[in-house]
């Protein structure tokens, strides 16, 4: 079940990014190749971007991609480290909580006003609901992390960062390069 | 009072290990709730705007996606082969080739860590095998890799453009000459060191190898022409050029080089194959490459890899914009600007302060975050003192390059430490001697504005000239 949900999440994120890229790409091609374009392209691409960032924030947490300064925390160990980590996660939850409340109040206002998006016939509150959804998903992951820390199964955010990402990409690099590496050893 | 709270909250959050993005966000929303009369709903509105009103920021995920495809798709490897064929026969040639390859890769990717990873993973090992010390090999690549954010396209420049409403295309033009300058300075330094230490040279590869390596690297080199040509020529906005570059990089990696994806390893022409049948087969393979990609594990992995890095960066950016919003509503940049002008600081003294401030800030935060927080503060002062906003942007980017090489948050150090399986401290020491080159360049670029401004002004004149013949 969890594995299936993970796959779904990855699929949604990848789809959002690819849709965003292709939309802007075809808009350029249409404009220069054929002198036409979609009126709605700019607004839709901006909304897609917002959904990508906000829904993706929780995915990035799962993958440990959010960068942090861990130099100080790494000096600690044992229970102290876990307590500090718990405080950090709880503060992050507070942040999500504030933004969820704010998003709810904002979306409620939009719902009451009943305005539509500029170029798309869709109520604006639906278009911007990713604001609540994104922070709710993030809060869910943080809550799970907090439980894991309290139970002693984790002692911090799993900090990877852009650096580790770049390295991870290497592991999947062209076979010849890694083959050469192996041959050297 | 608010300022003190804002910055204290930020530092405490970061100190206890909260991700930078959450720290920026929490410090900002707490300041708004505690000290201002803004409603909660307005925070949400602001946050949504941060993620969705700057069209130029969409270029960030596109350039990252294109970097991922170029790295996994073997373009980096071909650029290195070409660079080695060109300069390998000079003393210290392999190190020079690494710098050249970093410059090529910087011109197709907008990120420094990506450049170090792509070039370093191949070049460091090759240099060590050829008899260079590991620390020299690593130091050279780490320093040249910082050019990723100076030689256009550049993600950090896009962020600066978003923060200050300066044209990203102009920033791209301005970064070109300083980027080449730093590259040349590194090359000359390597040559001198190579002479003194009697470092090895490779035999001359021959014109045949140069031509064949150049042909192999064509996929990557054409992308440089495509992206920069489109932006410099004023044909496409940086965002559009970035989207085209992402699609192009995918096509080159999957259908051109066939180093990844559904048609991986298929030859362009088999032995004894007639031309028409090879043509038909390749047409079918290209179609298969495109259509099957959504179901291919490698392609999906590359897309998710790009998604992860993009989300991380854009989430930092959205929260840093909230932070900058609090700063501006508290009129902090304004107050500081008044203080500076009242103190009678001359432009060059101000630039010294800017450099010191940014070098310190760059040690603790990732470049995009620093730019978003510092630009609103420094920008009005620079205008007041008559410093060109584009020039200020380039100074900030060069400072961020140095920040990438200093602990604790030097991203290039992390990458290099990972590649060489050494400690972060070792990597920092390896980078240190070459950092002198970057610092010298920083001083030159800071005090000779025309290095940055010469190209954008020239292109501006051309465009006006061609508009009214």
Question: Gist?
Answer:
The complex is a heterodimer of chains A (185) and B (469). Chain A has 185 residues and is mostly helical.
Mean pLDDT across the residues of chain B is 89
Count helical runs of chain B.
Answer: 22
**How many helices of chain A?**
7
Outline of chain A: globular
- Helix fraction bin of chain B: over 70%
| Biggest β-sheet description of chain B | none
- SS class of chain A: mainly alpha
- Strand % of chain A is under 5%
Instruction: Report how far apart the termini of chain A are.
Output: 41 Å
**Could you list the spans of chain B in which at least 5 consecutive residues all have pLDDT below 50?**
none
Low-confidence stretches of chain A: 174-185
Largest interface: A-B, 76 and 91 residues
Task: Explain how this protein is built.
The complex is a heterodimer of chains A (185) and B (469). Chain A is 74% helix and 0% strand. Chain A contains seven helices and no strands. Chain A has helices at residues 2-34, 41-62, 78-113, 124-127, 130-150, 162-171, 175-184. In chain A, helix 2 packs parallel to helix 5 (130-150). The radius of gyration of chain A is 21 Å and the shape is globular. With 469 residues, chain B is an all-alpha fold. Chain B contains 22 helices and no strands. Chain B has helices spanning 2-15, 20-35, 40-52, 59-72, 75-87, 93-106, 112-129, 134-145, 155-164, 168-197, 207-216, 218-232, 238-256, 275-292, 297-329, 332-342, 347-364, 367-384, 389-403, 411-420, 424-447, 449-467. In chain B, helix 5 runs antiparallel to helix 11. The model of chain B has no long low-confidence stretch (mean pLDDT 89). Classes of the chains: A mainly alpha (185), B mainly alpha (469). Chains A and B meet through helix 1, helix 2, helix 3, helix 6 and helix 7 of A and helix 1, helix 2, helix 3, helix 4 and helix 7 of B.
